[in-house]
Amino acid sequence: MPTCTEPAWLNRWWLSHRLLILLAGLFAVFPFVLPYTALANEIMLFALAAVAFDLCLGYGGVMMFCQASFFGVAVYATALTLLHLTSNLFAAIAMGVLAASLLALVVGFLATQRSGSYSVLLTLAFAEMIYFIAFQWSGLTGGDNGLTGIKRPNLEIPGLFSVSLQSSLAYYFFSFVFFIAAFYTIRRITLSPFGKVLMAVRENEQRAQAIGYDTRRYKMAVFVIGGFFMGLAGSLYCMYICFAHIHYVHFEVSGNIVMMVLTGGMGTLFGPVIGAFIIVLASDVASALWDRWMLIMGAMFVFFVLFARGGLWGLFEKLMRVRLRNR
């Protein structure tokens, strides 16, 4: 009996996880095919932030402009923990994630008091306030000079093992484990009953309220979950660059994350990963070739907003459907 059912079980598992396995395989080889490992690390960590934002916008219909606040506050919290509290790797990550989650709870609580453009403008106001605090409170954040002297901890389990993370490649694969685990968790959230309610709120909030769902609580929950994973990306990024600067709470970071999601494909999870790859790689290559490379990025963004609203992943799905119909 087990021998008969096992192949069917394996087949179902492969069908439900094949894209995740492909994603893991691609990221596993990125450090060896891209020009340098640091670029692969940046793509992966911003892909995590973009996927977290896609959970909010693509599945919950919650638009915000404070992504950089969650990301950057985690950068600062991790840096301050390593500089003043402890050199424990997991404690530093936990502090970064906790700081971003608490901020997301506060912003979500206040932003969901209103709807539509008022809610979006509230998140923008919070983003500007966080940036102003980081700039002015130089005794804590270093102001425009940032925080330096951050040392990347090693992976140590007392009494069991110790792994050095000082090389870029070793740290990449450490972050890789977090990325795959986070992506899998977010994907499970979207497939859960909670995720289905989020999509119902996105499609028609009034109807969701009419059948008994407290839509404000669901919006607050997705704020916190999104902030949690953006904070995870920020915390890992801090230990990758060993530096904290006000740039990471600047609106530019939020804009880049929005571009990644819309370019790759909103409401798909895999699309934002593609968007992060294109935006980060194009920024790195184009900036070395032309001083006005942002014009190219802007034109590309306008194209996807006006003519390909499903992003690259949506175009891929359309091509696959056409191919299947023509068979």
Protein described:
The protein has 327 residues and is an all-alpha fold. The protein is built from 14 helices and two strands; from the N terminus they run H-H-H-H-H-H-E-E-H-H-H-H-H-H-H-H. A two-stranded antiparallel sheet has the order 1-2. Helix 1 (2-33) crosses helix 2 (37-59) and helix 3 (67-85) runs parallel beside helix 5 (117-136). The chain starts with a helix and ends with a helix. The mean pLDDT is 84.
Strand order of the largest sheet: 1-2
Percent helix, as a range, is: over 70%
Helix/sheet category:
mainly alpha
Kindly estimate the percentage of residues that lie in beta strands according to DSSP. Answer: under 5%
Task: Specify Rg, calculated over alpha carbons.
Answer: 20 Å
How would the global form be characterised? globular
Largest pleated sheet? 2 strands, antiparallel
Whole-number mean pLDDT: 84
Q: Can you count the beta strands?
A: 2
Order of helices and strands: HHHHHHEEHHHHHHHH
Helical stretch tally:
14
Give the termini distance in whole angstroms: 37 Å
Residue stretches low in confidence (pLDDT < 50, at least 5 long) are none
Quick description:
The chain contains 14 helices and two strands.
Labels describing this entry:
single chain, 327 residues, mainly alpha, two-stranded antiparallel ribbon, 14 helices, 2 strands, globular
